[in-house]
Ribosome maturation factor RimM
Amino acid sequence: MESAADGMLVIGKITGCYGLKGWVKVHSYTEPPENFLDFGGWRLKRRDRYETVDFDSGSFRGKGLVAHIAGVDDRTLAEAYRGCEVCIPESALPPLPEGDYYWKDLQGLQVWNQQGDDKVLLGVVDYLIETGANDVLVVVACEGSIDERERLIPYLPGQSVGRVDLASGVIEVDWFIDE
């Protein structure tokens, strides 16, 4: 899921039409993709404006999600939604168990590494990458960081990631500076 500055989260994108009766193909950004249908309060973003919609039905066909927008009952109407981002208010996200975080919560946090007795600032989390095996923090240089390098650090709590402190805006890692 991508965070938007206006309190909305992008949870998918309409990529095309499916059939003749107003169904659309949706690329879901939720994990797992099926969670897309569990939300409500969907809004389609088109030209920096939001339109409230209701997906009244949906299912997986092959590798993709298809959904029906209530009131859109033919392909011509559905085609008008191609390329729209599907958003929900951030407040619609369910709370997570202790120690779990949404990607949006990790973005912008400072990443500190223990170097002997000293802690050094590696940078800030720019975004995350899903690799299949584990997520990866993309850490970019910031004011006060040790150098100007971009680093890819596996998000492995208890291994490369020691502690996440949202209140302080800090992630502590155990990472090799020279790598």
Remarks:
- The two ends are 29 Å apart (CA to CA).
- The chain has a mean pLDDT of 90.
- Residues 71 and 143 are 51 Å apart (CA to CA).
- Helices lie at 75-79, 103-106.
